[in-house]
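Re: [ENG-882] Designed sequences occasionally contain unexpected residues at chain ends

Forwarding the minimal case from QA. Structure tokens:
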């Protein structure tokens, strides 16, 4: 009724006519908000929020190496699927992601940044019949890459201060001419 534009007071009148109760219009608003948020949570659990994270873990079971693949819904924090594989291959990862997210709304997938995920996610988008799935790097790995880039920049700045302008150059000071050359 509310979706069709019926006022809260008219809904109250309907309750009075139907079940002989007369809640206040504010009580009806609160009921709608509560039921609406529960409905939204249930819908996200079944259809998915659209944003998922994928990762794998290395396991040893009985001295043998296995891999645990896991996809979680980032918004609801629900595990969508997890499975143990004996081989970490692009084919297994792609098949797992597609099977896990089939029938769900998919907008973005967060991974650890392994370059093979780009093509896997593009193939999943084709399989789902959508133009694009956003591929995002997880915060941990993004910070790790940023830290590495900063460290390399600081090293390069220090090397410039010592007279090294290129990463592989060697600084040679000529005693005869008191000038600097780079080789």
């Amino acid at each position: 009724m509310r979706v069709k534009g019926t006022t809260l007071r008219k809904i109250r009148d309907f309750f009075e006519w139907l079940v002989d109760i007369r809640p206040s219009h504010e009580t009806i608003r609160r009921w709608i908000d509560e039921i609406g948020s529960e409905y939204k949570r249930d819908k996200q659990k079944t259809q998915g929020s659209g944003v998922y994270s994928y990762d794998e873990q290395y396991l040893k079971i009985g001295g043998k190496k296995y891999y645990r693949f896991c996809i979680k819904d980032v918004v609801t924090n629900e595990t969508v699927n997890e499975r143990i594989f004996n081989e970490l291959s692009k084919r297994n990862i792609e098949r797992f992601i597609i099977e896990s997210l089939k029938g769900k709304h998919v907008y973005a997938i967060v991974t650890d940044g392994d370059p093979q995920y780009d093509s896997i996610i593009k193939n999943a988008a084709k399989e789902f019949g959508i133009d694009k799935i956003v591929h995002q790097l997880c915060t941990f790995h993004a910070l790790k890459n940023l830290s590495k880039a900063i460290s390399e920049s600081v090293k390069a700045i220090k090397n410039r201060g010592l007279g090294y302008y290129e990463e592989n150059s060697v600084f040679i000071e000529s005693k005869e001419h008191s000038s600097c050359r780079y080789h």
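QA comment: On inspection the terminal residues look reasonable. The chain has a mean pLDDT of 80. Proposing we downgrade this to a documentation issue.
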